[in-house]
Design goal:
This protein is an alpha/beta fold. The chain folds into 2 domains: 141 residues, HUPs (Rossmann fold, 3-Layer(aba) Sandwich); 154 residues, 3-Layer(aba) Sandwich (Rossmann fold), CATH 3.40.50.620. The chain contains 9 helices and 12 strands. The chain has a 3-stranded parallel β-sheet. A 3-stranded antiparallel β-sheet has the order 4-7-10. Strands 5-6 form a two-stranded antiparallel sheet. Strand 8 and strand 9 form a beta hairpin. Helix 1 packs across helix 9 and helix 8 packs parallel to helix 9. InterPro entries: Glu-Q_tRNA(Asp)_Synthase (IPR022380), Glu/Gln-tRNA-synth (IPR000924), Glu/Gln-tRNA-synth_Ib_cat-dom (IPR020058), GluQ/Sye (IPR049940), Rossmann-like_a/b/a_fold (IPR014729).
Amino acid sequence: MARYRGRFAPSPTGLLHEGSAVAALASWLDARAHGGTWLVRIEDVDTPRCVPGADLEILAQLERLGLRPDEPPQWQSQRGERYAQALARLQAAGLAYGCACSRKDIAQALAAAGQGSERHGELVYPGTCRPGRGGLGERAPRAWRLLTQAAGRISWQDRRLGAQQQALEAEVGDFVLKRADGLWAYQLAVVVDDAEQGISDVVRGEDLADNTPRQLFLQRCLGLPAPRYLHTPLVLAEDGQKLSKQNGARPLDLSDPAAALRRAASALGLPPLAPAKPLAETLAEAVAAWRGLMMPATFVFPSS
């Protein structure tokens, strides 16, 4: 196997909270348990949602937790040229096409076809502007989409969830690569960045597992290597919803960084870490416990 390179990729739409601290710790532990390299990437491609200064605050939070990247952090907002090059390759190969549809247009087309349901908050694109199916006509393109007609059923082996599969065209449709507002879509940016940074393993929350088929297909279209994936259990709020900035999750309490690490380790199902230890010793104990989770063919997290 190639040398291990992992990453934590927070979006600076707010500070780290208990849930994002769990994701950060899991990715760091996996890199350290493999004797590999751990990177931090600031995923600020969705600039309107980013909070000024949150990127530097997040890096400071990670530093206080003892989670230090092995290379300088990278910002997606500085990499637009690389994403444009990837889109141009897809366009030249006939795999990307312009789309003039608004969200209202898509909803109306789905309703007319007797469909119209949302999937994880997204409408399954009906292919209105696909070449050979009407196309743009006289309309100007608003966005660029990836043609998924040849995707088939995307299958992969998640290190924790096991065998996974998705019929990409039917369940997602032709997804956006560049948005109508001119911003780069997350799917394209993350695939380009993972490849250029040589990421061998992606460790992230289970809520992002649904993105994996799109990223695997994009990697195939661009001729890029696919990393291994491990999706960790989610931290839930009191109402049972995913703990997130969108539902008001409070910033991580770092008055006692070692205690914050112990809480994050507990959420990952690690055995209780010894209290009243220096931060470095707490992290070393957590790495040893993580190696214990790695022993089975897939990770075994205690059920919550």
